[in-house]
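Hi everyone,

Forwarding the result from last night's run.
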Amino acid sequence: MNSLKKSRAEYALVMMCLKENWRLDYHLRLSRLGKDVSFDFIAKEVAQMHRQLENSTGNYGMPKSISSKLNLNSELFLEALRELSNGQSYISKYGWISECMSQACIIYSELFRRRYQNCHIKRCHGDLKASNLWVHPAKTLFFGLKKYPQQLLALDCIDFNPEFCHIDTLSDVAMLAVDIEMHFTNWTGAYKDLEYAQNFANVFLDCYLREMQEYSMDAWPLLRYYMTEKAMVCAYVSILYDGQPELGERYLDIAYVHAQQLGKPIETSTQQLALGVS
């Protein structure tokens, strides 16, 4: 028994401190100042991440589950609108988004079911936004003999509610697309060019769908739905939990634009890429 105790090895978990300037939101801010960010690289890395995920079990991703989650998000969304000063004005301007999403949830029920049947519901990250993604730069060691390519690292995934992480991969990627829009919109001027910002998100989504070989007519309506929902979530989280009402108002504007696009026809690949921007 004593010899067994002596033979036991002790283990330690060594954690690496990631540099703040590796964060994707940092890269996106630099990109607005004229430095390029490779959406092709980001899209391919996210696609690779999604290809490695396990399929979800149970009824996650089915219409009933999606409707239940929307009801919760809509309740918190309306609570956030009431929380803002002059809440009645915000409810008048943005409250219709919840009803619009409820109708879309019914209309897209067959698309949700098809995605479930085709095994697109995975155990996803669930909070795939720029502040949770880190770009590890490429490096060369041993006088060029060993090369490590650039990597995208994902941290702080959802682990407290399975309904928020056992989701369609399109729902997962929609969060990052909305975050890209938020970072590329000019919020300082009198005119908020949301359509300009959408172009960057659409380039990212186009690369992602091609990499996943999912460039179909089904994908784009669902992306509109999920991007509206993610903008709603980002809005109420910023207002109710993070104490950032100004940021929440930015996401309200993004949700407003995407909700307006719900139900609009997408007929050509050009329109798909534009996601209805006109």
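The first strand starts at residue 121 and ends at 123.

Cheers,
N.
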